[in-house]
Amino acid sequence: LDSGASGDLWWIGVNPIGGAFLLSGDGGMILRYDLTTHQFSRDTTPGSERIYGTWGAATDDIWAVGGAVDSPDTGGVIWHYDGVRWTSLDLSGVRAGGMPQLFKVWGRASGDVYAVGFRGIVLHWNGAAWSVVTTPNINDRQLFTVHGNAARVGTVGGFFAEALLLEREGSGDFLLANPSNSPQLNGVFYSPDDLAVAVGNGLSVATRDVGGWTTVDEGDDDQGRDFHAVWVDAEDGIWA
């Protein structure tokens, strides 16, 4: 499909919002692909940062996260769409020293949204304000993706041969749930039941059932190929 735009795209939302898929990428780019007209349109956005992820609860409540590529420690941004325009939030009071780049955003509802990113940052939106979530000491390892279901929320990342998976059940603390022998994990997806899947470097795969996480494939691809995202369909088919 020819989007009519130039620049790299980094993400497409799992679910359409208001009859359109949202895509995001370089130069502050947010595109909509209308499922009726099969046409792309580009939103007017408040900045030129790279936008790595979007998520929305409704057509008038959409979040986008990203950051300035040349300022990974302090150039993070969160944008919000209210049904009319995108605005950039003032994050100066959320984290001392500046906001790192943010890579993904996901929520259960309009008042329960998470964002994760560089330096292992985890943020939560409670419907009124964003705040930093306390997590175990992960030595500033990056967190690339966040997803969940009604029971739990998980976020994954790591550093090459080292996997990182944090999981939160209900309103409890985030706890380490690293699958053994797994390298860096880049994508995670939770189905409505107990099934979840995480994928990462070297085409590695880890799955979750009622007993917890297990590495299914440690990943040993010698072509330098990685999985970056994963989705589970309604029949529990796994796509990566």
Please tell me about this protein's structure.
By secondary structure, the chain is mostly beta strands. Helix content is 0%, strand content 49%. It is built from no helices and 22 strands. It has strands spanning 9-12, 20-25, 29-34, 40-42, 50-58, 61-67, 76-81, 86-88, 102-109, 112-117, 122-125, 130-132, 142-148, 152-159, 162-169, 175-176, 185-190, 196-200, 204-209, 212-217, 231-232, 238-239. It has a 4-stranded antiparallel sheet with strand order 1-2-3-4, with no helix packed on it. A hairpin with a 2-residue loop joins strand 5 (50-58) and strand 6. The radius of gyration is 17 Å and the shape is globular.
Estimate percent helicity.
under 10%
Largest sheet: 4 strands, antiparallel
Oligomer class: single chain
Uncertain residue ranges: none
Overall form: globular
Topology:
Elements: E1 9-12, E2 20-25, E3 29-34, E4 40-42, E5 50-58, E6 61-67, E7 76-81, E8 86-88, E9 102-109, E10 112-117, E11 122-125, E12 130-132, E13 142-148, E14 152-159, E15 162-169, E16 175-176, E17 185-190, E18 196-200, E19 204-209, E20 212-217, E21 231-232, E22 238-239
Antiparallel strand pairs: 1-2, 2-3, 3-4, 5-6, 6-7, 7-8, 9-10, 10-11, 11-12, 13-14, 14-15, 15-16, 17-18, 18-19, 19-20, 21-22
